[in-house]
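ok trying this again, last paste got cut off
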Amino acid sequence: MSDPMKSIFVTFLPVEGWYLLAPIISTISTAMVVISCIREKKHKETLGFMVLMINLADLHFCASKLLFSALDWTYGRWSCPIYDGINHFGLLASVIWGAFFGHALLQVARAQRIEVLEKSIKTYKLIGLFVPLVIAGILPFTEYAIYYEADTKLCVHYFTNTDQYPGSNLSYIFLAQVPIGVVCALSLIWYTKAYKQLRSLEVEGNMITLIFYPAIIIVCWAPILVSGLFFMSLGTVGDHKRLLSAFEAVGQLQGFLDAVIYGGGPKLFKKLCHCRKRNRKDPATQALVASYREDDSFKHEVSSLDDFKENAPLPEN
């Protein structure tokens, strides 16, 4: 009979070893950003609120990982899936809000007005709360997280379907891999479009920063998701538990990276708004717009550079 320990991956670990350095670093860095946002009242602004939500979700995810790893003496049949559901909420909320930041950047790049986010932020709040809450609420009633007792009490996930846990792999796919994979894809699409839009506007600044936004989600979570599929196909983790733990630690670093990268995000949005103001103040642009306002056929249509571009006639040859 095969060793069951070779078919499981430990979700929460005893508080020891280098593995927990990642959530400790992320917890401290995200807590600092959250405190800063609240003290300086940045959360009252749309962008500040989004930065706060990203780091708050990261703080929830990393801090709960540390807390539940320390509460191994409370592990049981129901406490393990409940703990994992609470932790999973923070993970999903974090990646979703990170993707929304890309969608917001795309909207502002197109409109060059921060006000366009006033309507979208309501949708962001609804999806950012509802989707993680539903998935996390379903998790305790599935075979995603399982209590395992050997030499010590553990909360684990089986990477093989057994007679006792036939839905283990299916729950892992639909509760973790599918939602995170979809968010990674959307994040990549939105940030790529935003990058192209910003290039066309010739926004000043280091545009390489935009690559880091989607890269955080992809780099942090692609390894553990891909390796999860691989081990499920094998039906065993074998002797690769340290590799999985390393991939899990990389995922835990998302909080630290989010705290560093997203802190400078609002500056990029401000540059977009300044870009629009600069176009409005340009003397040549204003002269052209004014000349067409004098034409009766255009004076009700032309009020800005955007209207001028849409309504101005082609020059005669």
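PB: full thing came through this time. Residues 143 and 167 are 6 Å apart (CA to CA).
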